[in-house]
Amino acid sequence: MKPKTCQNRPVSEPSGLRQRIVDAAIEVLREHGAKRLTQPEVAKLLGIRQSHLTYYFPRRADLLMALADRFLEHMAQDLGQIAEGKQRAEAVWLAVNRSITAPGAMRSFLGLLIEAERDPTLRELLAAHTEQFVGLVARELGRSPADADVRLGLAALRGIALDGLLHRRLHSARAALAIGKRLGLTQRQPKAAPPKPARTTAGRGRSR
Fold it and tell me: Quick check: pTM over 0.70?
């Protein structure tokens, strides 16, 4: 079966080009913010034609959501590598904190939010992505995605990251750990007990 071709697209292209485009977009977003994250800017950084980039990402919103998807994929991989044990919930919470407060992470998130205000489609996609992230964290903590403590804890971590961006300082993990402990998120959740069998009167005799 012959590979697909389209106008202005080379028949043979470097392997992993889509991956390289996403990597370059992340670099632009972290270094210059969402305003500079454009298809021409990313293509220029990679030294490729813009038509090659738009083959994979026809719209700027597609490129932005690819960045969000990359973040979610890496988060799932990192959490999945944490070994089971009594301290797993704490390790999961600290890993989530590192991903949210990492240099450039909050700046990237704010850039997506700003762009989403101007693009209803992007806003809808970003909202769905955020719910996937909440679900992932909740599942790894042994909780429901609807758990108010999980959502409050993640909001608090974003607040820490925003404060760090505003004041140009890095916060220690102690603040995140204190939040997790206060909300009970760093405690291992006991497995739910199996339901008790229903009591029946079948087979009971009437004789004394």
Answer: yes
Q: Is residue 4 part of a domain?
A: no
Residue 39 and residue 117 in one domain = no
In angstroms, the CA 201 to CA 46 distance is 75
Nearest to 63 by CA among 27, 12, 103, 95: 27
CA gap 207, 163 in Å, rounded: 76
Residue with tokens 């919103």: 61
- How many domains does the chain contain in total? 2
- What gap in Å lies between CA 156 and CA 135, rounded to an integer? 17
Q: What is the pLDDT along the chain (208 residues), one digit of tens a residue?
A: 433 333 333 434 455 999 999 999 988 887 887 778 899 999 999 999 999 999 999 988 888 888 888 888 989 999 999 999 989 999 999 999 999 988 678 877 887 888 888 888 888 988 999 999 999 999 999 999 999 999 999 999 999 999 888 888 877 899 999 999 999 999 877 544 445 555 544 444 444 4
Assigned token pair, 147: 């758990």
Q: Are 53 and 134 part of one and the same domain? A: no
Q: Identify whether 71 is part of a domain.
A: yes
Asked if residues 66 and 17 have their Cβ atoms less than 8 Å apart, the reply is no
Comparing CA positions, the residue from 98, 111, 97 lying closest to residue 26 is: 111
